[in-house]
Batch of 2 targets.
Target 1
Amino acid sequence: MPSTIIPTTSWFTPKRLLAIFCVINLLNYLDQGAIASNGVNGSTGIQGDFKLNNFEDGVLSSAFMVGLLVASPIFASLAQSVNPFRLVGVGLSVWTLATFFCGFSFNFWSISVGRMLVGVGEASFISLAPPFIDDNAPASLKTTWLAMFYMCIPSGYALGYVYGGLIGSHFGWRYAFWVESILMLPFAISGFLMKPLHLKGFVPADLVKAQVPNTVASGVHVTNASNGRDESLSFKEEFRDKSSNDQSKSKSATKMLDQFSRFLIDMKALLLDNVYLINVLGHIGYNFVLGAYSYWGPKAIYNIYNMTDSDLVFGGITIVCGIVGTLAGGVVLDYMTNTLSNAFKLLSVTTFLGAVCCFGAFLCRNVNGFLVLFSIGELLVFSTQGPVNYVCLHCVKPSLRPLSIAMSTVAIHLFGDVPSSPLVGVLQDSINSWRTTVLILTTILFPAAGIWFIGIFVHSMDRFEDVSEHQVSKVERSCTIPLLQEKTGETSLSPAQSEEY
């Protein structure tokens, strides 16, 4: 029986893909750290040049979040019909052009539009990169690989603060954006020039088309050959020319309607998945606390302990514990055996113990005791990053993974860190005690741990190997095999299928 070689990408290997995605993620968060730095957004940076008040300055971060939250589900939904690897290339191209434009911005509104487009560009990457990593990571190291990817968030922020300060003070804030754009450009280009990779659960469109016989065309050919009626063919071609515009418009409208209908069906599947909902609800509570910590933490520490270098101390603890804790969480879950039940066990236990340590830290009157307890608490709390995203990817069928990550991202920001900072500010204004305010905030970690604890007892099934509704034929099933292979593999097809290649 004839055989055909599965398309492979010679240069790409799983480890190289992970490294590339980690570098891209690092650049994404380096940008977010840079715009928060004094060198880029201080009195001599954006805020000073455009004479922004604090409200306008705060809108810049919200503008980024608007683009991210709106575009994430759109990119995830488009992955059903457009190659996800190409969508990553589109997103990175938007990001590259947007950061370059930010360097040329001339007032508040222009920089706000630029930041919103940066969020749009990042949306495709954060929705689609984790499923690619999940596909190609060794089975025993899936959470570790995810943890390495998410470790780039705190480390990227840290580099961004330093990078923004150095570039801004020596060359000006505009150069910070231009350099970022140049660094991302090769990755954006590679998204279009490299052979596209395919995600598990998504059938390449070219293979679907190859399996559909052109019966209409062959039927016309036979009829004309047997009857000798060239007029029939001419009439049909003339009719096609006249109606081509109407057909194309109709097809576009139908395609958009089908895309929206599929999105609604997929959203319904997510909302009816108890495991997914429990995971996201716990993550919202967790992110509510972490978001407020990141915004108010240095000010709270300064006021409670009279610590003049609170920015440096809080930032240092967060960076170190973020990197070490995130990696440790992934390694521990893989050591325990990465299952959904074990993930919920780790999420609930580490979040509860982390909450106890953080609560005890802010009760402590001694600054050294605070530093020790808070460091342990942050280490435990950050260890959730790998497991929580592992659950997002494995509690749904493969074709829903991009949307699962996208909607989780939307939920944890929309109901978590976006409202938490202003709400904590309102609380502090009303009680005027930073210690009490932060203690009340920290208690929210306990219900988050409780929600994840419930997940241990909910019936869960790892659906990574599920065959989706789009994968019914043998050729379609073969496409679920990740194309990142160290060596070329072969598979057998029927003679009819082989001829299509």
Note: The mean pLDDT is 82.
Target 2
Amino acid sequence: MTISDGKSDPGGDDRDSEIVKETELVFLRNRVKELEVENAKLLSQVSSCQCQQMEVKHDRSVSDSSSLVRRRRVRKGDKNSIPSHLISKRYVALKIMYFGKRFYGFSAEAQMEPSIESEVFKALERTRLLVGDKKDSCYSRCGRTDKGVSSTGQVIALFLRSRLKSPPGDSKAQVNGKTGERPEYDYVRVLNRALPDDIRVIGWSPAPVDFHARFSCYAREYKYFFWRQNLNLSAMDIAGKKFIGEHDFRNFCKMDVANVHCYTRRVTFFEVSPCQNSHEGDQLCTFTMRGSAFLWHQIRCMVAVLFMIGQGVESVDVIDTLLDTKKTPRKPQYLLASEIPLVLRTCEFENVDFICSPGAAESLRSHFKNESLTYQLESVIYQEALRNCLPLSNVSTEESSCNGIEKKKKRAEHVPLLSRPTEPSYEERAAKLKPRKQETCHV
């Protein structure tokens, strides 16, 4: 540094600061290079020591992830995993039994759960017997039983997964259910393992592709159980025989004018008969009715009127009057018979023989026996309550009359059917429906 006249050079400090910065920058650059060299050495050491182990772990993770994807696809029924047209399937009819008390009818279309149909499809999906979805299966059902109604012979038809590799036209394979030494799926056993206790598949049958569970059925048989009490069975049988033949049953059903325009149906058989069961001297009886098809609530309406005849409050001839729709165009208002005792017993088809393997049949027998015993135990509990929870012997006559135990309720006076208020006729309902259709079309 040059000193002149005791004063410092003002530009000297700036040059010194620049030199210091350049020196520090060179140092930092060199240090970065050293660190990069050290980092490279460490990476080479790591790769030489753990390369093989890391590769193995990587391979395992890839294989595990692929297996999880495969499992996920199988569980969710991903259509992209196996195209449905590559899956072997066959058209099958299934005979189904169900105890309807806890269900909102057979059909799932009412969107009231639980329904028998929804439970059946859950089982089909769970067992992976369903190929695609419900729409792809060409599904059909024989009937739509109401809430609480049971069945021992409901029939549905749809495409199910099959072990067969033979073409659909191979009738021998269709009947025997096997190709070579490979047997067909035991549909009854497989589905019953996935169904709730009050629904059971009791048989299956190969079906032609043009088979339809509803329109291919030529006869349906219903049973309605009741306690005889003081009913006149003879009068009920005479009245019930009047239903046989082809009649307009619009006064014995709930009209669905939007979908049903013909209310003529053919009843081919009617019988009143006692059953083997009895309780405390009261005989269990049944109505048996068979026909080609039935209307909405038709059986329960028929039974309701027959009960009035059995009680002696209506004449046998009232059946003739109600069947004559010219004389009685409007249905009298009356309550339906209870739905719980009604059973769709069987649906009949031509050239359809339902199959049940010996093992599946034995399982069904055991299951039905156990369920029957369970319900009998429940009945015993109610009988025990009836005997012990209301001890009439410990109650005085005065108390019993005050509590209403011995005092009988006054029965409501019966209003003859033909004197009751009536519902609108079919023509009146249809006339009201037309303006609604027109409004809907304009919208």
Note: The chain has a mean pLDDT of 81.
